[in-house]
Amino acid sequence: MTGDQLSELGCMLLISWFFRRLGVKYMLIAGMSAWLFRYIMFAYGNAGPHIWML
């Protein structure tokens, strides 16, 4: 859980840099892509051999 919080903090600190670099349109596309990837991992992850997806 601590690792997740640290990675989230790092991403939050990088958001302003990404906004300047990519712009609003591409930041929204990147965010929606990350959201889609996250839910695909939740859908296919299980307690067996695919535990790494969770």
Secondary-structure topology with pairs:
Layout (H helix, E strand, L loop, with lengths): L1 H21 L1 H21 L10
Helix pairs in contact: 1-2
Question: What does this protein structure show overall?
Answer:
The chain has one domain (2-53). 78% of the residues lie in helices and 0% in strands. It is built from two helices and no strands. The relative contact order is 0.08.
Output the keywords.
0% strand, single chain, mainly alpha, 54 residues
Q: Any idea what the radius of gyration is? A: 14 Å
Range of strand content? under 5%
Number of domains: 1
Terminal residue distance: 12 Å
Sheet having the most strands = none
Structural class: mainly alpha
- The H/E string reads HH
Can you tell me the overall shape?
flat
As residue ranges, the low-confidence spans are none
Number of strands: 0
What's the helical proportion of residues? over 70%
Count the DSSP helices: 2
Q: Would you summarize the structure shown here?
A:
With 54 residues, this protein is an all-alpha fold.
